[in-house]
Automatic annotation (TrEMBL):
It comes from Periconia digitata. This is Uncharacterized protein. It comes from the Eukaryota.
Length: 76
């Protein structure tokens, strides 16, 4: 099984960095899948930082830290 490390912000779940796939011997064969490994980093990205409250989007208010519904859509 191949692994691909995907780093995400722990609060807003935006993508921080997507690493290259670490291939195994079966890479490229039919039915073979790549397992994503999510690594949480920091808190929020720049666009979801609480310092950007002057933006005119409808989702200007951030939830408190600990909000973990997993269904939090990106702003754009
Ligand atoms: Zn593999
Ligand atoms: Zn974000």
């Amino acid at each position: 099984m191949c692994y691909q490390v995907v780093e995400r912000y722990s609060v807003c779940r935006c993508l921080y960095y997507k690493h290259a796939v670490d291939p195994c011997a079966a890479y490229g064969q039919s039915g073979h899948t790549v397992q994503e490994k999510t690594v949480l980093v920091g808190y929020t990205c720049n666009s979801h930082s609480s310092h950007r409250t002057q933006l005119g989007y409808g989702m200007g208010v951030l939830p408190d830290s600990g909000y973990e519904s997993g269904a939090y859509p990106p702003t754009r």
